[in-house]
Amino acid sequence: MPSPTPPALTDNTAKPSTSSPSSHAASCNSEEYAAKINKTIDELKTEAADLMQRSSQALHQQSEQIRAQALKARESTLGYVQHEPAKALLIAAGVGAALVFLGNWIGHRNKR
User: Fold this and answer.
1) Helix (H) or strand (E) run with residue 12 in it
2) Are 3 and 40 spatial neighbours (Cβ–Cβ below 8 Å)?
């Protein structure tokens, strides 16, 4: 989207106001530029609000999907533990031992 060209900057502070046709045309140009800028700002506000709403909806959908996956994993784990308690206990002990070994190994490595 091409941006409007800003009007030339002039110093009108020391000049008395005149009602000549050229000053009227400059005033109209300034008003046109201000209207274009306001329209552009309004369009940007609308686009930003739309983007924020779509992002919020996408985040909500993803959080719902993650929640559903977590519940499914929980149910699956509980079912496995109930049907195979001995295997589940051995797997948990093996994972715990591996984590302890990994923690000790990283701790000794960082001390060097």
Assistant:
1) none
2) yes
